[in-house]
Amino acid sequence: MSVRARVAGFLGVRPLVPDGAARRTVARAAKGVPALASVPDDELPERLRADGDPAAGLALVREIGRRAIGERAHDNQLLAVLGLLDGRIVQLDTGEGKTLVGALAAVLSSARGLHVTVLAANDYLARRDATWMRPLYDAAGVDVAWVDAASGAEDRRAAYAADVTYVAASELGFDTLRDRLVHDEAERVRDRREVVIVDEADSVLIDQARLPLVLAGAVDDAEPDTTMAALVASMKPGTHYAVSADGYGVTFTPAGEELIERTFGVDLYSESDGGGTLTRANLAVHAEALLTRDVDYLVRDGAVQLVDAAKGRVASLQRWPDGLQAAVEAKEGLTPSQAGEVLDSITAPELVQEFGLLCGMTGTAATAVEQFDRMYRRRVEVIPPNVPCVRTDEPLALYATRADKLRAIVERIAAAHAAGRPVLAGTPSVADSEELAALLTAADVACVVLNAKNDEAEAPIIAEAGRRGAVTVSTQLAGRGVDIRLGGTDGAARADVAELGGLLVIGTEPHAAARLDDQLRGRAGRQGDPGGSAFFASLEDDLIARHARIRPSADADGRVATAGGRAQAEHAQRVAEGTALRIYANTQEYAVVPRRQREHVLARREELLAEPEPERGVRLYFLDRAWADHLAHLAQVRDATPLRSLSGKAPVVEFNAEAVQAFEGLLSGADDDADEFLAAHPGLTDAAELGLGRPSATWTYVVRDDPFGAPLERFLRGITQRMLGRPDPDERPAVGPG
């Protein structure tokens, strides 16, 4: 168990290990397998459904898997299956067969008469795993299907009707949102919500927890705010605005405020302006100072495409809230994307909490035990590897400057490459991957780059990363779903590569979460293969510069040799993880009241679906209209509550009070509006003919929730601290050694 996992246990949340009862059940299953050798194939599914003994069930699915796909689950995989069936998040190392484990658990759940949804990290993995495991499901008499973004309504309905459905979390969320707004029960595609098995559980349940899935209806196109974007671009950092030490906030200086007021001829704090210019300016400076091209987003095909930092891919469905999205587009001189009003939204936690049983699997759960416990009340169970890991993990190499660090990384990669040892270097962003590739090329080291600009080529690139002499530079590898085999895909040179020490993983900069580093590290040493990892950092790296408070001395080559320096680097990572957890908690506080209000709205919709047409259409229209208006109002309230919080009340308390008051007459008001309309149109046969149809266009996307808070909230927090004479906690001076 890692040091971080032990610390989590000391603080009260401890990873579990398989207990004696589970091990005895697996041992009994092993004893029962020989007796199944002579049982005909078609009799195995019958026995599976007839025998409720857990050990017998494990023995049967192990035998079915061996016959159907040639894979006999080892004992530790069966322990993982039991962990899933007990509702836990199980940790299985890379290469230990998570896909098979999930399928076996799904078969056993289906044999109990339960519908199973397997949540994948993306469409590719949903389709791949369902297809890969289909022979196992067929042999067990279990229907399996998958859903992806290209699936039509009928295909989705058929897939969800299968015994086991593989689907990306985003697609499941979008289907849930569309089902909420149907005008006829027959239009729904989903039905049963009994068991959900989440693959790459930390990615889906933690990294995506703050990203609301949104169903939007079309409204008038937005106009680009190029004037404000140009003004902010002309400003000088430090003179007109200041970025906080942690990089999470930016505020205008008095000189910046004066420049804005002079340019637009307004008083930023006047009642007549109503804060409109201030909001525009804050969005523009956020886009200019806090969001970086080729790091946070790409510009491709005339559009802004967000980069998912946890996966290193273009997040094709993600966008920022409309104001910030438009500000970035104005910054880049692009035509603004279509704006929309939010019809409804849902988050990953809300989505999985609909199921009777939630469980999941990942290779990096032990360092996220606190998050799983606080966010989902799920315990983490660490499954030991079938073959002990012999990977050599070197201590973090910390350097004083980024230039020193990059020089050391290039030297290390060049030395390994000269010996023929394959190297996989992980970088935090597109820009960093391209910079390292350029340095390697200058050092006569040929390399292949995998990042958000060419992620469609990821499978062949990653598959060959274990080839002798290969050097692969990649952004984050989470959810890529491809194992790296020593010697390449054919394994012809496996023995030679193993003799050289196996795959060498190089981490070029610490991620904000330790488990992302662990995911990269875990690409080496799979299933007992030799391998090694070496991670590098510098005091100028974004994470350490934000959160570390020590500046130790360095050697002649720039390396920080003191243990205290390395400890501070690791501390910076823990601080970042704590910040992410607080952001999630804050987001959830704002979501509690709207979530309860949504339940009332959905219950009323269910009642209205039983009404005859056209009355049903009219009443649904006014109810949906009222809910969309309420959501828009809540968004404005959330931005405005910091003004009231200057009196000392917490913003979330003010928000909840306003949300409750605004909702009081929503349901009755929608009914009254419908009654009035129906009375004025007694002969109505089609509500749509009178403009009461659904939106002319709807689309789905993921909102990249603003982790820095509302622009107005950030601004007011800064001026309040100045008024009270309190220093920003992120502006405290660094503490020297000792």
TrEMBL record:
PROSITE patterns: HELICASE_ATP_BIND_1, SECA_MOTOR_DEAD. It comes from the Bacteria. Residues 1-573 form the SecA family profile domain. GO terms for cellular component: cell envelope Sec protein transport complex; cytosol; plasma membrane. It is an enzyme of class 7 (translocase). Transmembrane segments: none annotated. Its EC number is 7.4.2.8. Belongs to the SecA family. This is Protein translocase subunit SecA. The lineage of its organism: Bacteria, Bacillati, Actinomycetota, Actinomycetes, Jiangellales. The gene is secA.
